[in-house]
Design a protein that fits this description.
Elements lengths: L1 H18 L5 H20 L9 H18 L5 H7 L2 H4 L6
């Protein structure tokens, strides 16, 4: 179960942090909370699905992040542009 909790907590924000320019801090935190909650609830209640509790937790986290991010304050455009630039990705940090 610990690895299920870590995966439901970390994977969605990491995935969206790499590919989704509109992800926000509130969206990442909400995604982590929802992912943990779903895995814990399904594990504690011993709900018997044909799949591991990680899968519904991960799906809920993946849905939560873009939904919450769309309703919260966006990151500054210059910050997002700098983070997603090729120089930053290659390790050539500019100030």
């Amino acid at each position: 179960m610990p690895f299920s909790l870590m995966t439901a907590t970390i994977l969605a924000p990491m995935f969206f942090g790499i590919y989704y320019k509109r992800a926000t801090l509130a969206g990442c935190v909400a995604s982590q909370v929802v992912g943990i909650a779903v895995v814990l609830i399904l594990t504690i209640l011993k709900v018997k699905f044909l799949i591991h509790p990680l899968i519904p937790g991960l799906i809920a986290a993946l849905i939560t992040l873009p939904v919450v991010s769309s309703f919260t304050k966006k990151l500054p455009e210059d910050f997002v542009t700098r983070i997603f630039s090729d120089d930053y990705k290659r390790g050539k940090l500019t100030s």
